[in-house]
From TrEMBL:
Key words, A-Z: Oxidoreductase
GO molecular function, one term: oxidoreductase activity, acting on CH-OH group of donors
Biased composition (Basic and acidic residues): 23-38
Pfam families membership: adh_short_C2
Descriptive protein name: NAD(P)-dependent oxidoreductase
């Protein structure tokens, strides 16, 4: 699907809905995430990156773009093994090394395993991309259960917080941390209140950590995507809403993962050497003043 298209109907007349976690290999239409027209310039040559939620969607597009720029990557994911192997194939095809780590980063034992894998394979981490997330539509605020609230924060924020703490000893001066927040942190979403709250926390975390790590020469920034056509969407929203997804943006369409990935390349590279505590907004033209 080209950047100028919106999700089109599948054979049964509508984009296909999925159960969570969503899988890119089952999406119709498939997102654009392979950076086909991307022209690399060696911006990350010789670097090592850890990318959470890198099996599909934005995470996969970032992994591929980093590989094309010369970085080896360790990709974490929950359980979408077929998607993860496709990411591995595409990263390897781009000439980089790709390690896969399946499991829940909300589990401290698995988080420790990921850090150990990075230490053993790379000896250091130059770039950490905190991208993994989940969301659950709830029509009424009062019906958000404590279990859902804690689960959303555990995946979207607590795991991000703890992984960053554990990765930092492997990160040297010149390192970069890039967090995925969301336009919902700025505009809000009445049906994704717990998710939006985690994304607001990530903005505050990014700004605070950037000041804490400035003296160590480690930059911390974030990307706040708008509506992007990823597996998270058909696994979250009702099928009858998928055809209108993203049409409320000024550009009138959802974005594609490979339209977001260059933001992550920029923030990880020396091109952004004077940027920290900032948020980039690939969101189809929505003004958020953030």
């Amino acid at each position: 699907m080209s950047a100028n298209q919106i999700p089109q109907a599948s054979d049964d007349g509508k984009p296909r809905q999925q159960s969570q976690p969503g899988r890119q290999d089952r999406m119709s239409p498939r997102p654009d995430g392979e950076e086909r027209d991307y022209l690399p310039a060696g911006k990350l040559r010789g670097r090592c990156a850890v990318i959470t939620g890198g099996d599909s969607g934005i995470g996969r597009a970032v992994a591929i773009a980093y590989a094309k720029e010369g970085a080896d990557v360790l990709v974490t994911y929950l359980q979408e093994h077929d998607d993860a192997r496709e990411t591995e194939r595409l990263v390897t095809q781009a000439g980089a090394r790709c390690l896969l780590a399946a499991g829940d980063l909300g589990d401290e034992a698995h988080l420790a395993k990921v850090v150990a894998m990075a230490r053993e394979a790379f000896g250091r981490v130059d770039v950490l991309v905190n991208n993994a997330a989940e969301q659950h539509v709830m029509e009424t605020f009062e019906n958000i259960s404590r279990e859902q609230l804690e689960r959303t924060f555990r995946t979207n924020f607590f795991a991000l917080f703890r992984l960053t703490q554990e990765i930092l000893p492997l990160m040297q001066q010149g390192g970069a941390i890039v967090n995925t927040t969301s336009v919902t942190a700025y505009h809000g979403n009445p049906k994704l209140i717990d998710y939006s709250a985690t994304k607001g926390a990530i903005v505050a975390f990014t700004r605070s950590l950037s000041t804490a790590l400035a003296e160590r020469g480690i930059r911390v920034n974030a990307v706040a995507p708008g509506p992007i056509w990823t597996p998270l969407i058909p696994s979250t929203f009702p099928e009858d809403s998928l055809e209108s997804f993203g049409k409320n943006t000024p550009m009138g369409r959802p974005g594609q993962p490979d339209e977001v990935a260059p933001c992550f390349v920029f923030l990880a590279s020396d091109d952004a050497s004077y940027m920290s505590g900032q948020v980039l907004h690939p969101n189809g033209g929505q003004i958020v003043n953030g």
